[in-house]
Write a structure and sequence with these properties.
two-stranded parallel sheet; binds tryptophan; 3-stranded parallel sheet; 14 helices; mainly alpha
Length: 330
């Protein structure tokens, strides 16, 4: 069945290999299978990073990276949240049926209160309402979310249900999580434990240049090497193999497995090979990012086209919602 998919993209931080082999490659595939709306959540970024000097730069960077990686503006609807005036309006309307108590109990809110006690703003409190507006704006049926966003999606479902109940309509569908299942590849970090993530500082970024990328891979955590044939790999070594299985050919992986199992492995050689194979993935993307970033005409065209497409469904939904809620013209 063809789904309506909505996904918001955080506007801070560069894309790393984990993002690429995680959600991003699924987005690229998904855009051909479903009706997809991908947008940069620039309003959301104001709840934590209100920085006028960086806002536009961040939006431009992340947009360039997604386009370079393969999101296609002629296939999916790619836009900026702040280009849709219907979003703040739906947000306002939804907020009339969102209770302060439930917002205060949200895990992400409580976390933010701890992290930024001097800036507990109403935008932070109503973050889930804004996200619900993003999703319900297009009557989405599926939303790809990571663990940290599950509660927000659950709240969106509740708000949709509540709206339908209060007004006695069957208007908003309750969106489900889009589950990538086995296709979601988890890329471990280079520091020997856990997954790749920007807060961990264990990343290679799509935008990394050759020299920097090689340096990072060469510095990845390893150990003294196995002393017993066929021994179980400790986590840092297993992690290198995990990345290699994603970026290298099966022959290359087999070659180093064999070296490991016979205690002849030289991690320097393995890392050198790994860096080359990562570069085969990232370098073409890096080059496209740099090209797109220079091409303001192209970016302007992309966001204009995206905003126009997104406004089509948004204005229809908003006008329905206003009518359902009782707004009428004289
Ligand atoms: N809150 C999401 C995140 O931090 C971003 C987001 C905003 C989003 N609006 C959305 C995701 C709507 C999915 C649907 O990653």
């Amino acid at each position: 069945m063809k789904e309506i998919v909505v996904s918001g993209i955080r506007s801070t931080g560069n894309l790393h290999l984990g993002n690429y082999f995680g959600a991003l490659r699924n987005f690229i595939k998904m855009q051909h299978e479903h009706t997809c709306y991908f947008f940069i959540a620039d309003y959301h970024s104001l709840t934590t990073h209100p920085d006028p000097a960086m806002l536009h730069v961040n939006v431009k960077n992340i947009l360039s990276e997604y386009l370079a990686a393969g999101l296609d503006p002629d296939v999916a609807t790619i836009f900026l949240q702040s280009d849709l005036p219907q979003i703040p309006e739906l947000y306002l309307l939804l907020n009339m049926h969102v209770y302060v108590g439930e917002l205060e109990r949200t895990v992400s809110f409580k976390e933010k209160v701890r992290k930024q006690p001097d800036n507990v703003n109403a935008g932070l409190l109503t973050y889930p309402s804004l996200m619900a507006a993003d999703i319900l704006m297009h009557k989405a049926t599926k939303v790809p979310v990571g663990k940290d966003q599950e509660q927000h999606l659950e709240m969106t479902r509740r708000f949709a249900r509540r709206f339908n109940t209060i007004y006695g309509v069957d208007y908003f569908p309750e969106p489900d999580a889009y589950n990538f299942g086995s296709e979601l590849v988890k890329i471990p970090g280079l520091d020997g434990s856990g997954k790749m993530g920007k807060s961990e500082g264990n990343c290679v970024y799509l935008i990394d240049d050759e020299k920097n990328l090689r340096k990072k891979v060469m510095r990845a955590v390893t150990d003294q090497g196995p002393t017993e044939p066929n021994s179980v790999k400790p986590e840092p070594i297993e992690n290198l193999f995990t990345i290699m299985k994603v970026v290298s050919t099966p022959d290359t992986v087999d070659y180093f497995e064999e070296k490991y199992n016979t205690c002849q492995i030289r991690y320097g050689d393995m890392k050198k090979q790994l860096a080359e194979d990562i570069l085969k993935v990232t370098l073409p993307i890096r080059n496209r990012i740099l090209e797109i970033q220079k091409d303001d005409d192209y970016l302007r065209k992309v966001v204009k086209q995206g905003a126009e497409k997104a406004r089509e469904s948004a204005s229809k939904v908003l006008s329905d919602v206003r009518q359902i809620m009782g707004f009428k013209s004289f």
